[in-house]
Every structure is written in structure tokens, then in C-alpha cells.
Write a structure and sequence with these properties.
There is one protein chain. The longest helix has 19 residues. A hairpin with a 2-residue loop joins strand 9 and strand 10. The strands form three sheets. Strands 3, 4, 5, 6, 7, 8, 11, 12 and 13 form a nine-stranded parallel β-sheet that branches. This protein has two domains: 249 residues, TIM Barrel; 65 residues, Orthogonal Bundle (Non-ribosomal Peptide Synthetase Peptidyl Carrier Protein, Chain A), CATH 1.10.1200. It contains 14 helices and 13 strands. By secondary structure, it is an alpha/beta fold.
Length: 356
């Protein structure tokens, strides 16, 4: 669904989100996504506006410590020190001491607004190989230890947690986990409406997310999953018992989605999607920011998947996506964007269509 400027949704009363002493207004969060939500993407989102709290890519606490010992800087923290606030950094591991050590560094040296702990990632590298992410949903007592240690290390900066409904449809334990998260001292809980076994198949279960709210005494509940339009964001607040929402994959090729959702919550006309010419310019600015940080060769490689995101769902975009997925040089990238990225119809074509 593409909300247009002529489509003002009925207003809904939504309070700002309170995470510890931090006020998030509007209560719309940008999800941390590995390989995507780097500084360049966050900058693009910030320019469109509408996001209450942004997050970095998730950071491996163990890798952070190792890189620090080698006097190296984690790429995933690119831009964090000088970036606008509020800003969250999400980290993952299964060792409370390592997590606390890194959390303390994120707060003390990087000055982040929120430290988020990932208990939801379902990928094998994190779950099976590192016994972290959603793997830990099997071990609530371990989660408690991790959260408690990180909260102590990061105080007074708020610590939050992100989970899934459970490990599988046969083992949905989010109600129990929610209480553990709160009792350990976390300041907010985000729940993705699928289980770890689901990965991203099927639909997010917002009823199940909503059912968690009564189990939380003081901290807010943030819902996540399948929010791909301003209308769905409004519906999430209208129909489900959540205090905030988190937008993930849908924003990767549509960084203006937050501004549309924020307008919709106020009952204002929802801004139309930018023209294809404007979207092309946005993609090129994104590319230039990445190249400036990583150099032409690595930056071009990193932008392959992002370029494909920008053209998702567009008519006639298959040729562009196919070419973008294989691009290997800066000149080739510019050529592909110029020649294959979908274009706005010519004015005479629009007039002809309107008259027919």
C-alpha cells in the first residue's frame, strides 16, 4: 500500500514513548538490521524525518573486544560518536561480563542514548554457532543475568531488549520472557511477531504481541513486524496494546516511510512517495556516503543489495535489480542507475492516461 498526500488517515491519540528518562516522539523506531542500518542509511532516514529513535547495525560484543585489542574500530559503529541523538546501539553475545564491558564502553565513550540487547536474531551464525540471539529464549535465567549485568554497567543510560515470540510455534514463551526482561531492569521490550523458526515466513502475529502487554508492570512494549505502510502503523496503535512500533525491512528501500507514518499518526495528509527521479537521487546520495567511508571498491560492493532494495516492487525494475546485484565498479553503478532505474512516466503519457 502506498499512502498518498491526499490520503489523510483518521487521527489517533498516541503518547510519546518513554524509555527510562528518554522521551521518544513520535513513538516510531527504526530497527537495527545487520548489513543495512549503517550511518549512511541512518543519515538518509534522518533527512526525511519522522523517526523517533534510530539504531545501528547489531554489534557482536565479542568482536568489539577483539577489534579493540587490535586497536581497530568496528565498522558498524561508523558515525556514532558524531551522530545526532537519540541513537541506540544493539549488541549481542551470551556472556554477561563481555556484554557489560561493551555496554559500558558504548555509554562512556560513544555516548549512545540506548543500549539494546538482541535476543531475537534467528540466523544460524548467531544462534547455533554462538548460542546467542534467539537461542537464548530457551534460557530465561541466562537472559536475566545478561540484562542485569548490562543494566548495572550502563546506568543511568537505559538498556532495552528485543525478542521474538519464542523459539518455535510449539514453544512460544514471550509472556515469561517479558517478565524476566522487566525484572532484570530493562527499560523497554521490543517483540517481533514471529518465532525464531519462522525467520521471516508468514505474517507477524500482532495479537500475540498485544497479549504480552498485561505481563509488563512498568516498561513499554514495542511491536515489530510487517509494518510497510503508514496505514499499518496507525492500525498497530489503534488495534493492539503497544506503546511504540518498530519499522524494519520495509524502510530499506523507502527511508521516507517514517515521515509518512509520523504524519498519519497526527491525522495529517500522508506525504506521497518521492518521484522516481527523486528516489534515484536518494539512491545516488546513499551510494556516495558509503563510498566516502569505505572507498569505491568496497562501497560499490556494499551497495549492491541496497540498490536492489530501492527498486523493490517497482514496475519494470527486474533488469535494474539483476544488473545492480552484479555491479563491480563506480562507473558501472552510475551507468546502471542512469539507464535502468525505473523512470517517471513522461508528462504526455500521464495526460494521455488521464484522458482515456
Amino acid at each position: 500500500m502506498n499512502d498518498s498526500a491526499d490520503n489523510a488517515l483518521p487521527p489517533i491519540s498516541v503518547e510519546p514513548l518513554q524509555i527510562g528518562d528518554l522521551v521518544i516522539d513520535p513513538p516510531i523506531l527504526q530497527a537495527p538490521m545487520a548489513g543495512y542500518t549503517n550511518y549512511a542509511f541512518r543519515q538518509i532516514v534522518r533527512e526525511y524525518g519522522g523517526v523517533g529513535l534510530q539504531a545501528t547495525e547489531m554489534v557482536s560484543a565479542r568482536s568489539f573486544v577483539w577489534l579493540d585489542q587490535q586497536a581497530e574500530f568496528p565498522d558498524r559503529l561508523w558515525g556514532v560518536e558524531d551522530e545526532a541523538r537519540p541513537l541506540a546501539v544493539q549488541m549481542w553475545d551470551n556472556d554477561p561480563d563481555t556484554m557489560a564491558r561493551v555496554g559500558e564502553r558504548l555509554v562512556g565513550e560513544f555516548g549512545v542514548s540506548v543500549v539494546d540487547i538482541n535476543f531475537g536474531c534467528p540466523v544460524k551464525q548467531v544462534t547455533q554457532s554462538a548460542h546467542s540471539g534467539s537461542y537464548l529464549l530457551r534460557w530465561p535465567e541466562k537472559m536475566f543475568s545478561i540484562i542485569q549485568r548490562v543494566v548495572q554497567a550502563c546506568a543511568p543510560t537505559p538498556v532495552t531488549a528485543k525478542i521474538r515470540l519464542g523459539c518455535s510455534r510449539e514453544c512460544i514463551n514471550a509472556h515469561e520472557i517479558a517478565q524476566v526482561v522487566e525484572e532484570a531492569g530493562a527499560a523497554a521490550l521490543t517483540v517481533h511477531g514471529r518465532t525464531a523458526a519462522d525467520f521471516f515466513k508468514g505474517s507477524a502475529d500482532w495479537e500475540k504481541i498485544s497479549e504480552i502487554k498485561p505481563y509488563l508492570k512498568k516498561i513499554p512494549l514495542i511491536g515489530n513486524g510487517d509494518l510497510d505502510s503508514a496505514a499499518k502503523v496507525v492500525e498497530a496503535f489503534r488495534s493492539y496494546n503497544v506503546d511504540g512500533v518498530m519499522i524494519a525491512r520495509a524502510c530499506l528501500g523507502r527511508p521516507w516511510l517514517f515521515a509518512q507514518a509520523a504524519a498519519a499518526l497526527k491525522g495529517e495528509p500522508v506525504p506521497a512517495d518521492p518521484s522516481l527521479t527523486e528516489q534515484r537521487a536518494c539512491l545516488l546520495r546513499h551510494y556516495d556516503l558509503v563510498v566516502k567511508r569505505f572507498g569505491v571498491e568496497k562501497g560499490t560492493m556494499l551497495m549492491r543489495k541496497f540498490a536492489c532494495c530501492y527498486a523493490t516492487g517497482m514496475y519494470g525494475a527486474r533488469a535494474f535489480r539483476t544488473a545492480a546485484a552484479k555491479v563491480s565498479s563506480q562507473a558501472e553503478f552510475y551507468e546502471i542507475v542512469e539507464n535502468l532505474f525505473p523512470r517517471d512516466p513522461a508528462p504526455e503519457a500521464v495526460e494521455s492516461a488521464g484522458a482515456s
